[in-house]
Amino acid sequence: MTSEAPGYVAPGKGFDRDMNYIPDRITAVDPATGEPRRPEHGPADVPLWPAEPGRYRLVAAKACPWATRAIIVRRVLGLEDVISLGTPGPTHDQRSWTFDLDPDGRDPVLGIERLQEAYFARIPDYPRGITVPAVVEVESGKVVTNDFPWITHDLFFEWRDHHRDDAPDLWPDDVREEMDEVNKRVFTEVNNGVYRCGFAGSQEAYDAAYDRLFAALDWLEERLTDRRFLMGDRLTEADVRLFTTLSRFDPVYHGHFKCNRQKLSEMPALWAYARDLYALPGFGESTDFEQIKRHYYVVHSDINPTQVVPKGPDLASWHAPHDRDRLGPTPGFAVR
């Protein structure tokens, strides 16, 4: 997510994620005023930008779970021709994510070598970590926002006029309140919980983080035993948010972050659920296990000083039948 200087563990302390991001939002244009409309959800006093096809580029590394959720949502909603995608490589130095996968090491649309350049174009000497996902205005080359929870939320709510005809309703109104609660627990206890384990600076901090993480995974295992998706028989953004952590669990979090009570493949409902999602358009194709492993094992050099990337685990079983269709219908966008 971030390109902070190496040194992710604070000795003697627990992990506390910095959640301060550029708060701007990209919203649909109000036809009466011609200006971006004030969004229904979220802070009311943030700068707004108009949702205009072709104006923005999503910069999102497949190595990063927070960025991968944006890649998946963009694909699921059919926004590929509306918002272009730039993909930095899996590793970075203390300055910035870099476009080392592209010819000549430059993003082919923005023409930059480092994502840092887009941040500095907007905010000279930007003082925080250079994070992905980030949305960049193509013409000016300036970053618009890196506020990852709202990026995917707004891809659904503010770009609806440009969704594919069979796009799923990722935020159903009738379960919104419950879904907000599920998202909160998944974020604090699972998405962030694995980092709380991996970046623990004391035995006490690690033990507490480990217990919290697996208590939440036990809750999810039970919840998903008799329902196909987190909110029942409908795919929602809650599933996207959980998937990007589950897909990294055995390759990275189990060993590298010491989340080793069980592997994902040893939790029957969660494992089948993850494979079910992996088979859907946008999920498996946005999951690059080699980039994921290289990112964590190379970048977190204080946890893995040798920067040796493990060969395993064997990932062929991600393609095994999941038998989850007995619990509910397959999302319409996945049927061709």
Automatic annotation (TrEMBL):
Domain of life: Bacteria
Alphabetized CDD domains for the sequence: GST_C_Omega_like (cd03190)
Source species: Nocardioides imazamoxiresistens
Annotated InterPro entries: Glutathione-S-Trfase_C-like, Glutathione-S-Trfase_C_sf, Glutathione_S-Trfase, GST_Omega-like_C, GST_Omega/GSH
Protein name according to UniProt: Glutathione S-transferase C-terminal domain-containing protein
Residue ranges constituting the GST C-terminal domain according to the UniProt record: 161-296
Region called Disordered, residue ranges: 312-336
Pfam families membership: GST_C_2
